[in-house]
Structures are given as structure tokens and as C-alpha cells.
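Hey, can you fold this one?
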Amino acid sequence: QDVCHRASPLTTDPSLYLLSSMRSFKIVQGGCRRDFFRSPRRICAVHISCEHQKQHSSDGQLHFQRSRSLSSSAHHGRHTIRRSLSLSAASASVDSPTLFSLPGLSHPSDFAQLANKAIRDCNSIRQELASALNEEDDGVNTNQVQKAKRTLHLLDDISNVVCTVIDAAELCRSTHATPQWRNGASDAFGILSEYIGSLNADDRLYRSLRRFVFNDEDKDSSSEIIAQLSPEYQRMATAMRKEFERDGIHLQYTQREEARELNNVIVGLESLFSNNITEKTKYYNVGEELAVEVEKVIPRHVLGQLVRRDDLSSDGSMTLSSDNLLSNTLLAHSPSPQLRKEVYLESNTAIPENLKVLDSLIEQRHIHSTLLGYKSYAHRVLSDRMVENPQNVAKFLNEMEKRSRGMFEKEMELMMKAKQYVEGGDSQIQAWDVPFYSNFIKAQRQHQRSQEEGGNSDDSTQGYFTVENSINGMKALIPDLFGIDMKEVEIPIEERWDIDTTTNAQDQLAAGAAGLRKFEFHHEHDGALGSMYFDLHPRDGKFVHAAHFTIRCGRNREDDIGSDRQLPIVALVCNLSPSSSGSNALLSHSEVETLYHEFGHGVHSLLSRCSFQHLSGTRAAMDFVETPSHFFETFARDPSFLSRILARHYMTGKPMSELRAQHLKQSHNDFRSVEVQTQIVHSRFDQALFGENPCSPALGGSSTTDVFERLHREAGVPFAAGTHWHSRFGHLVSYGAGYYGYLYAQVFAADIWSSCMSANINSTPSSSSLREGGTKIWKEMLIHGGGKDPKKMLKVVLGRDPSVEPFFEGISER
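Sure. Predicted structure:
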């Protein structure tokens, strides 16, 4: 099980949990849980970056790429290039509604036209920069600082123009209800993906940066030009140079070609590893005795949605699959140790071919990184992260391990006692026991807590969480924190992507088939801040996970060479429980946490005010970017916010009691130390794979399976001999050498919450204390996007360096 996914919510019927999970499974990758990093600008970062490209790169560091978690963005209403020093405003009006409110996007065929136009416009900028390289510097009249600024703006323009189209294409191909729209977007995505490769290889762009910004094209030491730029400009310049050089553009031609060929091999191995996870399914047979145990957890009418009908044999036996949802449900809810063991062993040996793929990936990443001048792949990846190097990762993980060890040992002992009570005999906890006995003890604690509420044995949170309540909570929270108005607006049919445009759109709207919503954000003094779409429920052809997509990054440029304001547009895409019979959709608490997490990414994008779209919003350091999302997720389990605002019963409107809300938070903390210890093991494994002495037999190291087992044994985390869970550990592709970042960001979020919110959250909405904390978070952190060192931002917000103490104080609350 991926410990980054929240523990399954307790329900009286495991099959209901399974069906809910089938609708709302969330990937932590990509931004955003992100997620997702990370492919489309579902959370993204690049040199000149667009969010989609990361899924095609060896490390998500392509200059012109879309990275994580998720997203790059585009200029509103402008696809032409600004050639003059005076930058025009980016708020061109739109005469008629268009998809995503982006001009020129009215028909599926428009995507290809916009992609080709973006290429022409970018080529125009490339030529301008190339011509400047050939000009003689008069050394007298040229303002070198102005030229440096203009060079950075032009490079950012390339990113902006490409991402205008490719980010919209990424969202469209992932979510549009109409196949023709998805196909048109996919074509544009392919065109621009190939073009981005040529941008990354264009040494004229790199030379322009070296000559006009660093003034060190022919020497190693830079002039004083960059020192005269503002900190944000310096960060833009330094980030872009590092990203160019991480891909070898500074090397001699032969070495550069070797690096390019290695990168192509790496991309192929990454794709193979990921595709094997997605496409390979193992089928195995269980006899009649275990089949009966399966049906105690999952009725056949539900099971039939997960396995082929002919696998439900008439002789009583049953064929199961290694499908994650099926396996995890049985592991969490079956009281049969024999069934749990069978399911665990089969599902964790499902993709043996990925072991060799991983060995090759480790080897090629190491060779590629050392060719580029790094000690290891980990050194290369971490060079632009907050943590800076593998040594600091190890230091962080050691501290987390030490602080969580005591709680971990107590929770493991509890599970051993529970197993002894239920099964008798050997009480040793095996890998296949952890999900079941952690849920078993949670259920006992939930029952005990319910006695405090008058003996109600029903699911104490059932009926309190709906989509409407969740959104109303956001609409109450945003003004309290930031003084921002979140207003829902109507969406013209031409702007929607949740209806099939090949059929009668009005009939679909009348029948309630559409569910897309749009909100505009406005501040009394700062004015319009941008727009956020909510696409929350499943439908055919839609991306099946949860992610934050940036359709267009913000850009707010006011300096001596011109002004330019571009408002951000983002989309939160989830697959929450759909409504039934026109009623308000009931959600699990886990789904509410997911929604608030993605909302945090969206707020980060909207409240950013950077001079460069390249640094806007979630285009921050990868090990920091999840901090705002984890911060907002905390509201979804804060007892005060739950009982005052968020949790109200859908039938009676009665708010959740404070005691019940407190119990919900306590339930979230149950067995968190086991999750933390497992994450530490996985993070250490990730570092071992890609460090200076990688565990690859081809490089003289141990096998990945041996290292994975050893790390589990050393930490006391249960491990099943002969299994290889890591062969389906997709984060090794998308977050290679960066898996620690999940815990890293959670620590920051907990510290910010403790410092700025926990003492004020009980305040009334009129209290200035909540606004004071929210304003500090906005104006000292969120507003900068990736334009300021996150270490400096955190120190200003906290008034000190970050600490792990609030994180552990939080998870120890019982």
C-alpha cells in the first residue's frame, strides 16, 4: 500500500468503502497530491516551463517543461509576442465565450492551429535573441541591466506562449466529455511536446542568458550585472541557468550528444516502468474456503465490477487480480489471515519484470548525472530543492525516525496484542496484518469514543459532509483568512468541458449531467485575483485521480521596462462521490480532505504575484510546493472549523458536535507513526537507489530487493520475504530521489498551522487574529510563488527556522 494515501475510512460496510474508493482514488504525485507533479501543471516547475513535460523527462527538470504535481500557464487572450520594451497588459477581452475562457479555443481543431501559432511566435522570439547575440556591443549606450531584464522577460515569454496552449491541452485531453475535443488536445500536446525538445536543445537561449544576464559567456566568473537585479530577477536567472545546465547544454558537443542519448534511454525506461504498473495485472486463483472469506468482505455484485464475470466460478473457487483497490480492501477488512497473506504475496509479486527495468534505470540515471558533473542522480535532483543535498535528506529522515520511534513501537505493540486476542498463538505482526489490525483497533477506539457521545454506534461522521458544505466552508474560510471574496459565476456552454458537445448540451444541463462550477476571487484592495474551476465528479473519459491543473499562470509585472498583468486560471479535478437523485452529494471525510488539499494548491496559484509566469504559484521548489496544500487540508480535520462551519448534517442542518469533531481528528492520528516510519523507510530506499553508491548490481551494488528488505528489518517495519512491493513504486519515476518531500512539506505545514492558526482558529469570524495569521501567510509566502527562497519565506512566517516539534505534537494528540 502506498502510505502517502490516507488510511481507508472506517465504514460499517467495506464494499461501500471500495465503491467510494473507485470513485475518488487520489494520486500523490503531481502536485499536487497533488499533486501530480506531476506531469501537467497539475503542479509544475520548469526553466521555461510548462507542466506536462515532466512525465516525458528523466527527472522533470527540462527547461521548457511542465513539472509536478502538477502546471504551467498561459497568457490570457494573447498569443502574439511582445517585441517592444513596453509590455502590454494581458487582459485582452473575449468577444464570445470559449473553452477555459482562452481566446481562439472554440472548436477541437483550434488546438492544432494554436499549437502551430505558438511555435511561430516562439520562433520569432528565438530569432530575436539569436540576432542580439550577433550584434556588436557599443559598450557605451547600452543599458546592460535593461538588456538583462529584457532577456529574462523574453525567455519567460517563450514559456508563457507554449504553456498557453499545452496546459490547456493537458486539461482538455484529461477531462473533456467530448472525444473530438480530447483528440484535438492530444494532437496539440504531441506537437508542442516535440517542440519543447528543440527549445531545450537551443544553445542560443542558453548563450543569451550567459551573455546578457551573467555576462560570463566566455569565462566562469560573472560580472556585476546580475547583482544589480532585484532578488526575484536573480532567482529567475539562477534557476533557469541551473535547469539548462542540469540537462548538459553547457557541455561540449560530443558530451551533449551522449547526454541526449542517455536521456532518451532513461525516458524509455521510465515509460516502461510506469506502463508496466498501469497495464500489468496478475490473476490468481483462490479455493472455495478463501472465496467465502472474500465474499464476507465484498459481495459478488460488487466484486463483479473488479474481476471478469467468468472468474466467479460455479465450483466455489474464485479468480482474483492484483488490482490495488481490490487488494487493499481485502487487506484492510478481511479477518482471515490466510486470505490476507495470499492477497499480499500475490499482489506484491505482480510485476517482476520491473525489477530489471529499475536496475537499468538506476544505472542510466547515475551515468547520465555523473556525465553532467554531479556525484549522483540524487545530487542532481536535489541541487535546486530546499534540502540541497542527500546529506541533509539523511539528517532530516534521521530526526523524523528518532522522534517517531517511541510512538511507532507502542502502536506496533498494540497491533500485536490485538492479533493475539483475535487469532491467538503467534502474535508477530506480518506485512499483511498491518492494514487489518490498524483498522481493527481504530474501530474499537471509535466505538469507545461513541460511548462518550451517548452510545451511538453508527458511523459518527456519516451525513455530515457534502460537496455544498465543503464549498461553503471554503467561501467562509477565504474571507476570514485573507479578506478575499470567493464568488460563484455562471459558465457559458462554450466554456464548459463537462458536457458532450456532439449532443444537445442544453438537454444535458437540464438533466443535471453537468457538474462544472466556476468561482472568481476578488480582494478589496488587490482587485481581481483569478478564477478557479471545480470539476468534482466522475464521468466517462475523465482523468480518474485528483489533481490541481493550472490552465494559465499569473504574471504581475510592474517595473521600469513595462507592465503586464495576467490573471491565473486553475482547475481542481477530483472524482468525488456523485450525487444521487438530484440530492447533494454525500462525501466521506477522506474526500473532503482531498478536496481541501487540492483547494490549497489552487489558492497558492491564485494568490501568487510574480513578475514571471515561470515562477508563478506552484512553480516553487518541489519539496516545498505541497506545504500550502497540506496547510489547507488541516482545516478539514480541525475540530473548531468542523463544528462551526464545515460539518453540517445534510438532512437536519445540525452542526457536528465539538466532541465528535475532536474524535474525528483523533481517529486521523491513530497509527500515524506507523505511516511515518514506513514513509521514512521508503524515502531512505529512494535515496539508496540514487545516491553516490547506488544499489544496482551493474554498478557493483546490492540488489534493490535486498536493500528494500534490509531497510525494513532495520526499522522494524514488517516485510514479507520474497516480495518486491517497490516494483510498483511509481514515485521512483516521478519523484526519484525526492520522495522525502512528502514528509518535508507536512512538517512545514504543521509548523505554520501551529504558529499562525491553532491559537486563532477558535476565534469568531470577526476576529482580527485569524486575518492576521492569514495575511502573513499570503503576503510573506503564497504571494511569492517560486520567486523567493522558501527557507527565507518560512523564517519570516514562523519568526524562526522550521521545527519538527509541531508535526509530532499534532500526530500524538489522542
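The CA atoms of residues 327 and 343 lie 6 Å apart. Let me know if you want another pass with a different chain boundary.
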